[in-house]
């Protein structure tokens, strides 16, 4: 079903002109094409033209970038079905824009048939599934299966001492902590990283460069602190 109202948001006049002429050539009945040279203008247009069904949004604009535009529209609940039309589509950017409600991502040299298909698809509330989205999906799936390797100072100390072959009891004495606390740290680390043994845990952090070959520092006692 043809779309009747489309907004093009891009700070380059030539890009807006080319897209307008391209869409006008479709001969979709009753087609209205709106243009905005920046984010602020787009937000104002959408306030006064709630009939706009699809927005083609550039990312890099001088007044507001595409992310800021989507945040403002999401806050006001005035965002139409949005397609990002840009040369910038890193996985992190795609993730951010999807969270803000974007329905698809297109490169600026997209073929006409693909552009029209994307517009019609998103106008129905569906996500436009193309190569950019498929690459992002692979990336996000890999990220979701990657363990969290961020270490607190205490976890780092624990791993260094485990690497030295010390037992939980020895580590507890060395760090002046209870045995139960040390065991709790170890179990949480193994659960978070989905490792099955201490050897596997240490190997994971060594390979990731998160664990160097130095020794853990023994915490100062109160008497040592007073002597300084």
Structure explained in plain terms:
The structure is a single chain. The chain has 228 residues and is α/β, with parallel strands linked by helices. The protein folds into 2 domains: 5-144, Response regulator (Rossmann fold, 3-Layer(aba) Sandwich); 153-221, Arc Repressor Mutant, subunit A (Orthogonal Bundle), CATH 1.10.10.10. Helices cover 52% and strands 10% of the residues. It has helices at residues 13-24, 39-48, 66-76, 91-99, 112-123, 131-145, 153-163, 168-175, 179-193, 198-207, 222-227; strands at residues 5-9, 32-36, 54-57, 81-85, 104-106. It has a 5-stranded parallel β-sheet with strand order 2-1-3-4-5, sandwiched between helices. Strand 1 (5-9), helix 1 (13-24) and strand 2 (32-36) form a beta-alpha-beta unit. The longest helix is centred in the middle third of the chain and has 15 residues, at 131-145. The chain is elongated and about 80 Å long. It starts with a strand and ends with a helix.
Question: How are the elements arranged and paired?
Answer:
Layout: E1 5-9, H1 13-24, E2 32-36, H2 39-48, E3 54-57, H3 66-76, E4 81-85, H4 91-99, E5 104-106, H5 112-123, H6 131-145, H7 153-163, H8 168-175, H9 179-193, H10 198-207, H11 222-227
Helix pairs in contact: 2-3, 4-6, 8-9
Offer a few descriptive terms.
single chain; 228 residues; alpha/beta; Rossmann fold; Arc Repressor Mutant, subunit A; five-stranded parallel sheet; 52% helix; 10% strand; disordered C terminus
């Amino acid at each position: 079903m043809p779309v009747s109202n489309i907004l093009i948001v891009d700070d380059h006049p030539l890009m807006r002109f080319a897209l307008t002429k391209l869409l006008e050539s479709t001969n979709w009945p009753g087609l209205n094409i709106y243009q905005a040279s920046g984010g602020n203008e787009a937000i104002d247009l959408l306030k006064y033209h709630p009939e706009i069904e699809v927005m083609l949004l550039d990312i890099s604009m001088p007044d507001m970038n595409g992310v800021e535009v989507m945040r403002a529209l999401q806050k006001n609940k005035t965002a139409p079905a949005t397609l990002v039309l840009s040369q910038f589509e890193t996985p992190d950017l795609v993730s951010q824009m999807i969270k803000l409600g974007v329905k698809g991502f297109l490169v600026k040299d997209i073929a006409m048939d693909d552009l029209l298909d994307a517009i019609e698809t998103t106008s129905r509330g569906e996500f436009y599934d193309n190569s950019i989205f498929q690459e992002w999906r692979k990336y996000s799936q890999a990220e979701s299966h990657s363990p969290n390797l961020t270490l607190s100072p205490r976890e780092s100390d624990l791993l260094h001492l485990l690497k030295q072959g010390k037992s939980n009891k020895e580590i507890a004495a060395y760090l002046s902590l209870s045995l139960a606390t040390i065991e709790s740290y170890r179990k949480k680390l193994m659960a978070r990283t989905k490792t099955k043994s201490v050897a596997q845990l240490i190997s994971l952090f060594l390979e990731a460069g998160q664990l160097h070959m130095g020794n853990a520092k023994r915490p100062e006692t109160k008497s040592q602190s007073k002597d300084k």
